User: Fold this.
Amino acid sequence: MKFQLKNTAAVLAATALFMSCSSDDSTSVNPESHGDVEVYFDNGVGGDALTLGTSYTNSNGESLTINRLNYIVSNFVLIKADGSEYVYPKDDSYFVISAEAGMLTAHLENIPAGDYKKVRFGIGVDQQRYLQGETAQQSFWDLAAAHDMTWTWSTGYRFINFEGTFTAPGLNNGLIFQVHQGSNTATDNYREVTLDLPTTARVREGEVPSVHVKTNANVILDGQQKIKLSDNLNQAGTGAAVMGGENLIKIAGNTLNMFSVDHVHNGGSGHHE
Amino acid sequence: MPRLLYTAIAIVLLLPLTSCSEDSEYVPVNEAMELDIPSNFPPLAQEVAVTKKGFELGRKLFYDGRLSADGTVSCSFCHEQGYAFTHHGHQFSHGINNQEGTRNAPPVQNMAFQSEYFYDGASNSLEMLSIVPIHNPAEMAETLEGIADKLKADSEYTRLFSQAFEDGQVSSGNILKALGQFMAMMVSANSKYDKHVRNEPGGSLTQQELQGLQLFQGKCASCHATDLFTDSSFRNNGLPPNPFLNDKGREIVTGFASDRYKFKVPSLRNIEKTAPYMHDGRFGSLESVLNFYSSGVLSSETLDPLLDHNGVLGIPLDTNEKAAIIAFLKTLTDEEFLNNPLFYFRT
Assistant:
């Protein structure tokens, strides 16, 4: 009992200290201070939550059972209401998001304190980065390879690895599909999106605002441009592969609408708002 | 006075450091290596930053079979220096477990001046291109991570990586970087032809070679352009596709039907030494190559327009002209490059 009381007192004291610090911060932002931001990717399919192994029917009349949704997000920029931008250091700005691996966040560290209203990021790996060669990528190649996000017959990265099985009218059930989005030496399919934050992300020392991004995997094949898996069967008719040509350009366009920010959690420890 | 104090502190701080480093191994300075751009060459197409230690490490890796899954196939297995780093006498590249690929090993030379690699442009980066043969299941069948794991267990390699790179790591990135540095330095620019165009001693061409040069400029140089002898473009030169391979060439990379059967225009440097010819190594001699261009070109939707003159296909050439062109092509042999000890590996 005595021990418990002592602990409570310690917690209260620590909380008081912490709160007084953070309330100072929120009234006047110390421009010299820094905080972290977490960008969380909530995978979904056309408004439903994404559950690997579950089937979804799209407007192309095809039912997809998704077994893999991995993608690369990169080159994060945080933008304030006045339009000023904080560009996250490029060397640290490449992330693999993977449903199967449970890797759903891009954790950005040491962001200048301030109120941010927009976030911009890329889908995939930009040509400038790629052409700097592997020296610039270093351990990112290994991370990407570990999550099936590299191309080795051609040298580069898969920007999106979207795989599973599908059914379509007139086809045998359960054909495999593989959608591998990326750039090649003929087409640059890297795209960037700028997303509005419905509420400000308040970056302060000791607080980690969480930007909750909704990912809509449906638009990969069923966005402004429609790609039917049944139009992309291999010669043996045993599966569909979408990995090149015009399809990659269409998917690049579709990915511009793949992400939106649903909400922002401010005050990492939950004592704000 | 304060400066003196700082100096004193610095000396005290440094003392234990210097005594340590005297005990440990001497670390040599990793000096930069300059790439001399031949005056008759176009500008560099790749960013090149080579150090002596990086180059030497890349050379060791190039000759090391551990870059393949079972330790038997090094880069140099299919890229032999004496044949301008091609797989002499082999139609296709060979890989581990006695496998055979589907394309003829291309020469490795003047790499830093090129913007596209492989017959289909599978890579456009000198540092990234090694990924392709390393991972190809019919060639080296390894992974970069797997190679790094093997080399980390070798104290010689851990020492060489620590000397060659600032971060000192045996890593995927540094493996590719070292190989890229080695290949960046592999410049072939001292053939008889080069001496001719640079007005250097040893550059006088015979009457037939001069005739061949003139014919070449009129009939071949629109694709085999500049003193690299390639414009780095992808073209369908009208080779009848091999039905057993049906290699679609550039289309494999781009996915565009308009790229079907297009292959990268190869450089012709050291061509005398790089037989067999074409992406699939189908021709054993330069005579066969020119016979193909004069009478074997096949029409198709993607045939290069330069090879179709109002329905007359190919390049008109008579016997004397062919002989002259071949005589000229042999002036592109660069014995200095083929025998340069800088590119050997000696343990």
Remarks:
- Chain B has two domains: 32-188, 192-335.
- The beta strands of chain B are 32-33, 50-51, 234-235, 263-264, 308-309, 312-313.
